Amino acid sequence: MENKLVSLKDVSWRREGRKILHDIDWEIKAGEHWAVLGLNGSGKTSLLNILAGYQFPTTGDVNVLGYEFGNSYIPNLRNELGIFSSSLERFSETLDFETIEEIVVSGEFASIGLYQEVPAEAWEKADALISKFRLDYLKGKEYRYLSHGEKRRVLIARALMNDPKLLIIDEPCSGLDILSREEILLLIKEITEQQCHVVYVTHHIEELTEEITHVLLLREGEIIGKGPKKAVLTDELLSKTFKLNLNVHWEDERPWVSVKKPLNI
């Protein structure tokens, strides 16, 4: 795909007869880091599931990291992807009694829990990630004793164990306080410095740090805007996406919004 990491052409997806995604055309090229923005129910999760190969489109063509859906063995794709989602915390019965080292190294095997002997080089790699993400003070500590923010940072480190070419980060700051949120956002720079491309999914505009270069806006399964960050994050397109009269302003290459009245629902 030359320098294209992701190519979606005329992609639609239906569930129980209802169209969730409508005619999605989207490309991610080398050197780009994307955010996907939209309200809850806008189709963000469905789009992510297609990118990760967890569901196939009803119509359209998908190619992710050179894997053409319908003509490639998609489980191999997941060896080249990193996926973080706070939904992983539903496996807390397993995670709670593991140390952070065990959780991070399990990313090498894409497993929840360790079920095989771990080679020494994998432990060394996990240790390097723990240090890079400033988690050394948690070594030897079980997951259940961590704060919500610490848990997210550990799980993001885990997602990088297989040196993914593309890391999907799904709402990592959901439910966090301001300090914990900013600690998570600091990791985006660390991730991009590892030559890893990012797809960052959120409905909070202020989470888009300067490392994010491009934005895709979704509303009710349709693309409202896509392209370079400053060209897409306009008052008009954001207001249409979020069904509110919004005003965007920028501080240190980071967007912030305020709500104008009357509402535009």
Explain the layout of strands and helices.
Layout: E1 4-15, E2 18-29, E3 34-37, H1 44-51, E4 59-64, E5 67-68, H2 74-77, E6 81-85, H3 92-95, H4 100-106, H5 120-132, H6 148-159, E7 166-170, H7 178-192, E8 197-202, E9 214-219, E10 222-228, H8 229-232, H9 235-242, E11 245-251, E12 254-260
Helix pairs in contact: 4-5, 4-6, 6-7
Subcellular location: Cell membrane
Protein name: ABC transporter ATP-binding protein YlmA
Main location: membrane
3D architecture notes:
The chain is built from nine helices and twelve strands. By secondary structure, the chain is an alpha/beta fold. Helix content is 28%, strand content 30%. β4 and β5 form a beta hairpin.
State the share of residues found in helices, binned by percent.
25-40%
Distance separating the two termini: 40 Å
Strand order of the largest sheet: 6-7-8-3-9-10
* Main sheet: strands, sense, barrel: 6 strands, mixed
Proportion of strand residues: 25-35%
Q: What's the mean pLDDT score?
A: 89
Low-confidence stretches: none
> Helical segment tally?
9
What class do helices, strands and sheet pairing give? alpha/beta
Taken in chain order, the helices and strands follow as EEEHEEHEHHHHEHEEEHHEE
Number of strands: 12
Please tell me how large the radius of gyration is: 19 Å
User: Which of globular, elongated, flat, extended, rod-shaped describes the shape?
Assistant: globular
